[in-house]
C-alpha cells in the first residue's frame, strides 16, 4: 500500500523524534557517570565537578576535580580525564572521543579539549561567570586548532547545577 504524503511526513517526524530520544538517553547515561565523579570530588572536599571521556561507546577515562588535594591549579576534572585517556590509548590525539563534564569548561580546559582533538563535548550546567564554551567565551570556535568540536550544553542541567550550588551553600553555612 502506498503511503500518502502526510503519512510519509508523519513517519519521518516519528523517526526523527525516536533518534533524538535515543541520543538524549545516551548522553544522559554518560553524564550520570560524570555526576558520580562529581560526587566523589565532593566527598574529597573538592568543588564537585566530574568528567568522563568516551571512545567507541565505552568510557576510557573518569576523573574529578582534584585542585585542593593536589594543590595544583591545573587539576581540573577535564585536564585529568584527558591525561588519563591519552595514557590509555597511547596517543595525544583523542579524535572521535566524546567528553561529558558536569559543568561548562573554563578557558584552560576548553583549550585542552581542542588540543586533544576531542570530537564532541557535552556539559551539564552552564557556567555564567567564566564558561568558555558559549556562556562568556567561545574558545572552541576561536582556537582555530579544531573547529570541529561539537558542543551540547544543558545535559541533565538541573542535577548538575544543583551539585555545585549545594556545595557552595553548605560551605557558606559552615563559615562562622
Ligand atoms: Zn577547567
Determine the strand fraction and express it as a percent band. 15-25%
Average pLDDT score: 93
Low-confidence parts: none
Backbone CA Rg: 18 Å
- Spell out the helices and strands N to C: HEEHHEHEHEH
Biggest sheet strand order reads 2-1-3-4-5
The ligands found in this model are: zinc ion
- Main sheet specs: 5 strands, mixed
As an assembly, this protein is single chain
> What is the helix tally?
6
Describe the structure.
This protein is α/β, with parallel strands linked by helices. The chain has a 5-stranded mixed β-sheet. The radius of gyration is 18 Å and the shape is globular. Helix 1 runs parallel beside helix 6. A hairpin with a 2-residue loop joins strand 1 and strand 2. Bound molecules: zinc ion (ZN). The site of zinc ion has 6 residues, from helix 4.
Summarize it.
49% of the residues lie in helices and 16% in strands.
Key descriptive features of the protein:
176 residues, alpha/beta, binds zinc ion, 6 helices, globular
Amino acid at each position: 500500500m502506498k503511503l500518502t504524503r502526510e503519512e510519509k511526513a508523519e513517519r519521518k517526524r516519528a523517526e526523527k523524534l525516536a533518534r533524538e530520544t535515543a541520543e538524549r538517553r545516551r548522553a544522559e547515561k554518560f553524564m550520570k557517570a560524570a555526576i558520580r565523579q562529581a560526587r566523589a570530588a565532593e566527598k574529597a572536599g573538592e568543588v564537585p565537578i566530574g568528567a568522563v571521556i568516551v571512545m567507541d561507546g565505552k568510557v576510557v577515562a573518569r576523573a574529578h576535580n582534584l585542585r585542593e588535594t593536589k594543590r595544583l591549579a591545573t587539576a581540573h576534572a577535564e585536564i585529568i580525564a584527558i591525561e588519563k585517556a591519552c595514557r590509555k590509548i597511547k596517543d595525544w590525539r583523542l579524535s572521535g572521543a566524546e567528553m561529558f563534564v558536569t559543568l561548562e569548561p573554563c578557558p584552560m580546559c576548553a583549550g585542552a579539549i581542542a588540543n586533544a582533538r576531542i570530537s564532541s563535548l557535552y556539559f551539564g550546567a552552564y557556567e555564567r561567570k567564566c564558561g568558555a564554551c558559549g556562556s562568556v567565551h567561545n574558545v572552541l570556535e576561536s582556537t582555530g586548532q579544531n573547529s570541529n568540536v561539537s558542543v551540547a550544553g544543558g545535559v541533565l542541567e538541573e542535577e548538575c547545577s544543583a551539585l555545585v550550588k549545594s556545595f557552595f551553600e553548605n560551605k557558606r553555612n559552615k563559615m562562622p
